[in-house]
Design goal:
A hairpin with a 2-residue loop joins strand 2 and strand 3. 20% of the residues are buried. It is elongated, with a radius of gyration of 19 Å. The mean pLDDT is 82. The protein has one domain (5-83): Orthogonal Bundle (Arc Repressor Mutant, subunit A). The protein has helices spanning 5-9, 12-22, 31-38, 42-55, 73-97, and strands at residues 29-30, 58-63, 66-71. With 108 residues, the protein is α+β, with helices and mostly antiparallel strands. It has five helices and three strands.
Length: 108
C-alpha cells in the first residue's frame, strides 16, 4: 500500500474508526461491530484493520471465524494524539465561525 501512516489517519472514515476504537475503553471489538459503530462499510473497516495491523497499531485475536481487534500501545498513543488534533481543529472552526467585532475607530 502506498499510504503513509500520516495520510492513513487524516481521512474521515479512518479517523472515525480509530477514534471509535480509542474512545471505547476496554470494550472488545469485532470488525462488524466496529464498522456499524463508526458508520463505515465492513470491507472498508476490514481493509483498514489489516493495514493498521501491518503497521503495528492494531492487533487481533482469532476466535473461530471472528477476529477480535484492539489498539496496541502505539495505536493508543497515536489515537490520543489525533483526538487532541481533532479537538484543536474543532476549536479553530468555532472561532472562525464567530462574528468578528468591527475594529474601534480612533477619534480625531
Amino acid at each position: 500500500m502506498s499510504d503513509s501512516i500520516g495520510t492513513l489517519f487524516f481521512k474521515e472514515k479512518q479517523l472515525r474508526l480509530l477514534l471509535t476504537l480509542s474512545n471505547s475503553g476496554t470494550r472488545e471489538w469485532y470488525i462488524t461491530d466496529l464498522a456499524k459503530a463508526a458508520d463505515v462499510t465492513y470491507i472498508h473497516t476490514s481493509r483498514f484493520v489489516s493495514r493498521c495491523e501491518e503497521s503495528g497499531m492494531l492487533a487481533s485475536e482469532r476466535h473461530g471465524r471472528i477476529k477480535r481487534i484492539f489498539l496496541t500501545k502505539e495505536g493508543r498513543e497515536i489515537a490520543e494524539s489525533l483526538s487532541g488534533v481533532m479537538l484543536k481543529i474543532g476549536q479553530a472552526k468555532q472561532q472562525m465561525a464567530q462574528p468578528k467585532a468591527p475594529p474601534e475607530q480612533k477619534e480625531q
